[in-house]
Specification:
Blueprint lengths: L1 E8 L2 E10 L15 H4 L1 H9 L15 E12 L3 E11 L6 E10 L5 E2 L10 H15 L8 H5 L11 E4 L3 E5 L14 E5 L23 E7 L2 E11 L2 E9 L8 E10 L8 E6 L4 E5 L4 E4 L4 E4 L3 E8 L7 E9 L6 E11 L4 E3 L5 E2 L5 E7 L2
Parallel strand pairs: 2-3
Antiparallel strand pairs: 1-2, 3-4, 4-5, 5-6, 7-8, 8-9, 10-11, 11-12, 12-19, 13-18, 13-20, 14-19, 15-18, 16-17, 20-21, 20-23, 22-23
Length: about 375
């Protein structure tokens, strides 16, 4: 939903644009918990309704138009929970734009909201904080005794758990808001606390009980290059893993693309015989390259021999396919645990320019950084 107001303020036309994007419980094949969402985002809708001409009354004449964008999205789903991400961004006067977000975690069965205390057993807070601090320092490249205020720009040299966390299939995504621990000019810290790192704290009867099984399904969502990649891995039977990938490119993108590539690398797997079956949309090209195949190394600018199995999905983006592409791989479960997948994607513009997923991850065998998805920890 969106609306726009304009009025003359001191001989200048000033406009305000307001928008709200939220889940539609009547759209598509959706889980049953969507019935709870209208009530859970009632406050967001109320805030959107208040966005109007009153914002402009009594204010100094702004040099630019004002806007406010509200979003409520289902950002993570696990066997027992789902997470809404509520964002509010815009400019309605002041020194700079504003941006805030909130993760809200709920039980799928009842819609009850969850906090830290619902996930862990006993007196967990001190241990959880200590583990989270170690993980944060490692992810930020900080020494164990580094001063958080001097080295990371925190207000104080004291680590605290963020108010915001999202329950994902891989772990708790801990994310701080602007001004929570750092000033506006600093990028708010954000890092993943994997379940393998906090396994001893998890309540075996609570919402995270699924994470105590190392074979639980895992998934990741990436929003890069104005696109969304959903990648999931689940165990089908004692010998088989199923990997599903969906690439969604919005048709209203500011840049026109004509081709895309999703690349998957499998450390620890060399032969293509590990792939028991595969399916992809008609018109897409699937390349399977076992160890020893000739691949192009983008940093060295020459061909090299692959060290591990690599799979590449090449797609063509057209209005006819709605810019949605799917890939399914069935893989033999490797003996070595955990099972690691490197992933990245790129897009080609109409003029031939290649845009690559901007990620600081593990450098793969072609000399480019990749995101990492781990199963069976």
């Amino acid at each position: 939903m969106s609306k726009r107001y304009c009025q003359i303020v001191k001989h200048r036309i000033v406009c305000l644009e307001c928008s709200l994007r939220s889940p539609d419980a009547e759209f598509g094949d959706i889980p049953g918990f969507y019935r709870f969402i209208p009530k859970q985002i009632a406050g967001v809708r109320k805030h959107y309704r208040r966005c109007g001409p009153a914002y402009l009354e009594g204010k100094e004449v702004p040099e630019v138009d004002w806007y406010e964008n509200l979003t409520a999205d289902v950002t993570a789903i696990t066997p027992k929970t789902y997470t809404l991400m509520i964002t509010d961004e815009g400019f309605t006067g002041g020194a700079h734009e504003f941006h805030s977000f909130e993760y809200r975690n709920y039980l799928r069965k009842t819609g009850r909201r969850l906090g830290y205390k619902d996930l862990f057993k006993g007196d967990f807070n001190r241990t959880l904080t200590a583990i989270a601090e170690r993980v944060y320092r490692r992810s930020a490249g900080l020494a164990p005794d580094a001063d958080l205020s001097e080295e990371a720009g925190w207000y104080e040299n004291r680590f605290v758990l963020p108010k915001n966390f999202a329950i994902t299939t891989r772990g708790l995504l801990l994310s701080y808001n602007t001004y929570e621990v750092t000033p506006y000019v600093a990028e708010p810290p954000k890092f993943l606390l994997s379940y393998s790192q906090i396994r001893s704290l998890i309540d075996p009867k609570g919402p995270l009980a699924f994470a105590l099984d190392p074979d639980h399904p895992v998934s990741v969502d990436e929003e890069r290059l104005d696109a969304q990649l959903h990648l999931s891995v689940s165990k089908i039977d004692a010998q088989t893993l199923e990997l599903n990938a969906t690439l969604l490119y919005p048709p209203d993108s500011d840049i026109a693309y004509k081709r895309s590539w999703l690349t998957l690398q499998f450390p620890g797997i060399k032969g293509s015989d590990a792939i028991l079956g595969h399916e992809s949309d008609e018109g897409n090209r699937l390349g399977i390259y076992p160890a020893g195949s000739q691949l192009y190394h983008y940093k060295a600018k020459k061909r090299i021999h692959a060290r591990r199995l690599e799979v590449e999905l090449e797609t063509t983006d057209t209005d006819e396919n709605m810019n949605i592409h799917n890939l399914q791989l069935r893989l033999r479960i490797p003996r070595k645990r955990p099972f690691i997948i490197y992933y990245r994607f790129a897009r080609q513009r109409q003029d031939g320019t290649i845009d690559r997923m901007p990620v600081e991850g593990k450098v793969g065998q072609q000399g480019l950084p990749n995101g990492i998805l781990t199963w069976g920890e």
